[in-house]
């Protein structure tokens, strides 16, 4: 139960930080490399327990999955969409 509460607190804190930092993050995305954008996007999923399948992602974030299994809040979804749009603008694959 303590682990679930800690994970929940982390998710809440992360969502709050992402919401507050949304504008600042959008500004900084302009200067990020494709690798940095990839990391930013996948970090959001990793913090929410996503079960990564690619070798690169499991090497960086590990194979551990946990609730909420990659489900994102609306604020986190917006951050992912924003990051993906910058990846497209920069021609990242």
Structure overview:
The protein is mainly α. It has one domain: Methane Monooxygenase Hydroxylase, Chain G, domain 1, CATH 1.20.58. 69% of the residues lie in helices and 0% in strands. The protein has helices at residues 2-20, 22-29, 34-47, 55-61, 74-89. Helix 1 packs across helix 2 (22-29) and helix 3 runs antiparallel to helix 5.
* Radius of gyration (Å): 13 Å
CATH topology name: Methane Monooxygenase Hydroxylase, Chain G, domain 1
What do the pLDDT scores average to? 84
Topology, number of strands: 0
Question: With helices defined by DSSP (H or I, 4 residues minimum), what is the helix count?
Answer: 5
Low-confidence stretches: none
CATH architecture: Up-down Bundle
User: What gross morphology would you assign?
Assistant: globular
Helix-strand string? HHHHH
How would you classify the helix and strand content by structural class?
mainly alpha
Give the CATH level 1 class: Mainly Alpha
Beta content comes to: under 5%
Q: How many structural domains are formed by the residues?
A: 1
Determine the fraction of residues in helical runs and give it as a percent range: 55-70%
Terminus-to-terminus distance? 40 Å
Largest sheet: none
